[in-house]
Each structure stands twice: as structure tokens, then as C-alpha cells.
Write a structure and sequence with these properties.
Elements (H helix, E strand, L loop, with lengths): L24 H14 L1 H23 L13 H28 L1 H8 L3 H34 L11 H27 L2 H22 L6 H9 L2 H8 L14 H25 L3
Helix pairs in contact: 1-5, 2-3, 2-5, 3-5, 3-6, 3-7, 5-6, 6-7, 6-10, 7-8
């Protein structure tokens, strides 16, 4: 008895009728943008940023007179709210990546897009654009309102440079958010990343004040007091500083410091994310 054999014809190579373009950074940015706008944390953090900067700024404008702006910039009222609102930017920076680690979505992300450097770059770019646009819009709404409402003859002349200083201040806050994103990618924990960033903002003034009390390390203490986040924002927004801590640092030195610190953290995040499992 012989068994019958059936020959099955093998299908040829399948060719999809749909175009399959090579993945690039634009695709990764589109994916990260979709994730960013679909998160509730984005609405809450950026919404609180706008509410804080614009709300407090307009209250400050309503409590000032035209003559007050002969000594300060029109954008100074926005600084009051931005001192608090910067925390929202940093929280969003941390959550942009730690939320994926918390839910396990990061494994799916790296499976779908094996090029981790491209994914991380897309996160940095998308977050930076969203944070900078929101911060700048909030600050300039307050500044323009102050210029319109309090721009009488008593306010004196105002150079265009004060608006560029405010723009640099918005960039500074954005870099703080990028630093927070880098810290989040290193620690992979929301609470830990936020705690580190709160320390970055609040501890240097305290440490500087403590070191200034001892003559041996007073110079280091004064240096820290001149280079920390609150002082940097005051410098960029053109607000005069009081106290006996030496000459005021330049805006360039403040910007260079945050660029160096953020750049170092971002570089470390690329190295660590590229080497570890997830």
C-alpha cells in the first residue's frame, strides 16, 4: 500500500501594496508627540504652568503703577509666576519618560523602534518644543499686558533687549525641563526624578548661605549664591538683586552653566539608555 503525497505550492515573496518608507526621526517625533498630547499629565502640568504664570503675573500687573516700570521690565511680573511654574515644566520632563517605565510601555517602544538614540532624541525635541512654546506664550501674554496697561509716560523708555532677556529666561526654564527628562531617563522613577529636580532648584541657595557663614569656604558659598536657578531667572529677566554676594553674574555665564549641566546629563542619558536592558 502506497501513501499518496500532495505537493503544496509555496507562495512567492509577498510584496505589500502599501509604501513602506525607511523609519526616520520624523516618525519617532510623530509617535512621541502622540504620546505627549494623550497623557493627562501633559494637560495638568502645562495647564498649571499657564495658569500660574499668567494668573500671578496679571495680579502683579494690577497691583503696580506706571512709574514702577521705570525701574523694572514689563516682563518682570511674569517672573513671579514663573518661579513657581518652572516646577510644572520639570515635573512634565520627568514624567515624559518615567511614565513609560512605570507602565512597561518602554519595552513596546524600544521593540517597535530599536534605535534607542532616535527615540530619546525625539523625546528631547518634542518635549523642548512643547515646553518652550507654552512658557514663552505665558510670559509674553503677561509682558504685553503690562506694556499695554502700564506703558504710560511714567514708565520711561524700554529697550527691545528686555524681551530677548525674557526669551532667554523661557529657554532657561526649558533647559531645566530637558535636564529633568535626562534625570528621569537615568533614575527611571517618577518620584525619584522629581525629588532630584526639586533639590537642584531649592538646595543651592540653602547650601550657599550655609557655606558663606564659614570664612574658609565663604568664597564657594558666594559663588553658589550667585549661580542658582532663582538668581539666574532674576538675572535673565533684568531684575536687580540685593545683598552682599559680590558682583551680579552675567546672563551669559548663567546660560552657559545650565547648558553645561544639562548637556552633561543628556550625554549620560544617551550612554546609559543605549547600554542597559530598558
Amino acid at each position: 500500500m502506497t501513501a499518496t503525497t500532495t505537493t503544496v505550492e509555496q507562495p512567492g515573496n509577498y510584496s505589500s501594496p502599501l509604501a513602506t518608507p525607511r523609519p526616520h526621526l520624523g516618525h519617532a517625533m510623530a509617535s512621541e508627540w502622540t504620546k505627549l498630547v494623550s497623557l493627562r499629565s501633559t494637560l495638568w502640568t502645562l495647564g498649571s504652568l499657564v495658569l500660574t504664570v499668567v494668573g500671578i503675573g496679571l495680579i502683579v500687573v494690577s497691583q503696580t503703577a506706571d512709574g514702577d516700570y521705570s525701574q523694572i521690565n514689563f516682563t518682570t511680573p511674569a517672573l513671579v509666576g514663573l518661579m513657581v511654574g518652572q516646577l510644572a515644566v520639570m515635573v512634565l520632563g520627568v514624567l515624559t519618560i518615567t511614565s513609560e517605565h512605570g507602565t512597561g510601555l518602554v519595552r513596546t517602544t524600544f521593540t517597535a523602534a530599536p534605535d534607542r538614540y532616535r527615540v530619546l532624541t525625539a523625546k528631547y525635541l518634542v518635549f523642548s518644543m512643547a515646553a518652550f512654546a507654552t512658557t514663552t506664550l505665558s510670559v509674553f501674554v503677561v509682558g504685553i499686558t503690562a506694556a499695554v496697561v502700564r506703558g504710560g509716560s511714567a514708565s520711561g523708555p524700554h529697550a527691545a533687549g528686555e524681551w530677548f532677556g525674557a526669551l532667554a529666561g523661557c529657554g532657561y526654564v526649558t533647559l531645566l525641563g530637558v535636564l529633568a527628562l535626562a534625570i528621569g531617563s537615568l533614575v527611571r522613577h517618577s518620584a525619584g526624578g522629581i525629588a532630584v529636580m526639586l533639590g537642584v532648584v531649592t538646595l543651592p541657595p540653602v547650601i550657599g548661605a550655609m557655606l558663606s557663614m564659614w570664612e574658609a569656604v565663604a568664597a564657594a558659598g558666594e559663588l553658589i549664591l550667585r549661580h542658582n536657578v532663582p538668581v539666574a531667572l532674576m538675572t535673565l529677566f533684568g531684575l536687580p538683586q540685593g545683598g552682599d554676594v559680590g558682583p551680579e553674574p552675567s546672563t551669559l555665564s548663567q546660560l552657559m552653566l545650565i547648558v553645561l549641566v544639562t548637556g552633561g546629563a543628556v550625554a549620560a542619558s544617551y550612554v546609559i539608555v543605549g547600554r542597559r536592558d530598558v
